[in-house]
């Protein structure tokens, strides 16, 4: 099926709105497809529509949290092109549902220098170029990796993400998902989001800090889903993440651990 340019343009505001709400959690590859997404992969073309309520602690200040209502939309065409609020725009080269790989274009929303970050200067939003791969060992275990390049004011930030997910049916209408993940970032990305330059030190309360490349964080999550009707599911989940290495030791970070919870309804079509 050919893609109508007007359809892609109509989806663009939705893609950028959701990317803004997700900030830096945007990625061009999930740790695994959900049950509804697996059905879409198997039939070759289709989409999912979701609405999620999310509550998340802020790394910059552990005493504050953010609550957001976020719509989600993804569509995969039979020719391999996909558009997603979580993965951006991309192309999947594989026709095998068990092995997915391709390239994509996403968005890093940058950072505003406000609150504890006064004097640090804004980090502008940037387009990111990337590649992804997902491999299903079987219907229960999936592995994934993704590369994203282009973030930061110098457009040289690089992040590599690695994830694994296990899912199983608990009952005819109930399913459980468990996931773990970690990410590695190059020195340019780490300097942008966790470093303090001489100029920033003079304008802020922080001392000069120069982090190196390394693993940025580690995370784990659990999700419980209930099938309300064919193609419609309700999910609730909790996740925990922790900064690592030079990111955790950064003076701009007051809390290296973060908890989040979500409740979402998803429709596959």
Description:
- This protein has a single domain (5-268), classed as Porin (Beta Barrel), CATH 2.40.160.
- Residues 1-37 have low confidence and may be disordered.
- With 269 residues, the protein is an alpha+beta fold.
- The protein contains five helices and twelve strands.
- The radius of gyration is 19 Å and the shape is globular.
- The longest helix has 18 residues, at 5-22.
- A twelve-stranded antiparallel barrel has the order 1-2-3-4-5-6-7-8-9-10-11-12.
- A hairpin with a 6-residue loop joins strand 4 and strand 5.
- The protein has helices at 5-22, 35-43, 187-194, 198-203, 245-248; strands at 46-58, 61-76, 81-84, 88-92, 99-108, 126-136, 141-151, 157-169, 174-185, 214-229, 232-243, 257-268.
Assembly state of the chains shown: single chain
Q: Name the structural class.
A: alpha+beta
Uncertain regions spanning at least 5 consecutive residues: 1-37
Backbone CA Rg: 19 Å
The CATH architecture classification is Beta Barrel
Strand content: over 45%
Please give the number of β-strands: 12
Give average pLDDT, whole number: 85
CATH topology heading:
Porin
Highest-level CATH class: Mainly Beta
Order of helices and strands: HHEEEEEEEEEHHEEHE
Largest sheet: 12 strands, antiparallel, barrel
CATH superfamily: monomeric porin ompg
Global outline: globular
> Largest beta sheet: what is the strand line-up?
1-2-3-4-5-6-7-8-9-10-11-12
How far from one another are the termini?
A: 16 Å
How many helices? The count is 5
Percent range of helical residues: 10-25%
Q: How many discrete structural domains?
A: 1
């Amino acid at each position: 099926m050919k893609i109508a340019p007007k359809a892609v343009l109509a989806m663009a505001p939705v893609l950028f709105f959701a990317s803004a709400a997700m900030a830096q959690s945007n990625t061009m590859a999930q740790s695994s497809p959900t049950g509804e997404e697996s059905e879409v992969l198997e039939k070759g073309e289709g989409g999912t529509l979701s609405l999620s309520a999310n509550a998340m602690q802020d790394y910059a200040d552990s005493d504050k949290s953010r609550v957001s209502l976020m719509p989600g939309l993804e569509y995969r065409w039979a020719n391999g092109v996909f558009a997603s609020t979580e993965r951006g725009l991309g192309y999947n080269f594989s026709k095998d549902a068990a092995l997915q790989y391709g390239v994509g274009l996403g968005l890093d929303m940058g950072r505003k220098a406000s609150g504890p970050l006064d004097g640090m200067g804004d980090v502008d939003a940037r387009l990111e170029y990337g590649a992804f791969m997902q491999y299903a060992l079987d219907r229960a275990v999936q592995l994934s990796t993704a590369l994203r390049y282009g973030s930061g004011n110098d457009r040289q930030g690089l992040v590599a993400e690695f994830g694994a997910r296990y899912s199983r049916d608990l009952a005819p209408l109930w399913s459980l998902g468990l996931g773990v993940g970690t990410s590695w970032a190059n020195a340019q990305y780490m300097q942008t989001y966790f470093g303090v330059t001489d100029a920033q030190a003079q304008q802020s309360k922080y001392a000069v800090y120069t982090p190196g490349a390394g693993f940025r964080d580690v995370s784990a999550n659990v999700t419980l889903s209930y099938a309300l009707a064919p193609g419609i599911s309700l999910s609730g989940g909790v996740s925990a993440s922790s900064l690592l290495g030079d990111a955790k030791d950064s003076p701009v970070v007051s809390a290296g651990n973060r908890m989040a919870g979500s409740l979402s309804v998803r429709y596959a079509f």
